[in-house]
Amino acid sequence: MNGWLQHLPILPVLLPLLAAALLLLSGEMRRGPRAAMALGATLAQLVVATVLLGMVDGRLNPAWPGDIAVYALGGWAPPFGIVLVVDRLAAVMLVLSAALALATLVYSLARWERAGAHYLPLFQFLLMGLNGAFLTGDLFNLFVFFEVLLAASYGLVLHGSGAARVKAGMHYIVVNLLASLFFLIAAALIYGVTGTLNMAELAQRVALLHGDERTLFDLGALLLGIVFLVKAAAWPLNFWLPGAYGTAAPPVAGVFAILTKVGVYGLLRFATLLQNVDAPAPFGGDWLFYCGLATIAVATVGVLAAQKLVRAAGFLVIVSSGTLLAAFGFTGTTLTGPALYYLVSSVLASGAFFMVIEMAERGRTASADLLAVSFEAFGLQAKEASSEHPDEMDGVAIPAAMAFLGLAFFSCALLLTGLPPFSGFVGKFALIAAAVAVPSETALLHAILFGAALLLSGLAGVVALSRLGIRVFWDTERPAPRLQWLEAGPTAVLVLLCMALAFGAGPAMDYFDATARSLYDTRAYADAVLPVAGTGTAE
Question: What is the pTM of this model?
Answer without folding.
Answer: 0.86
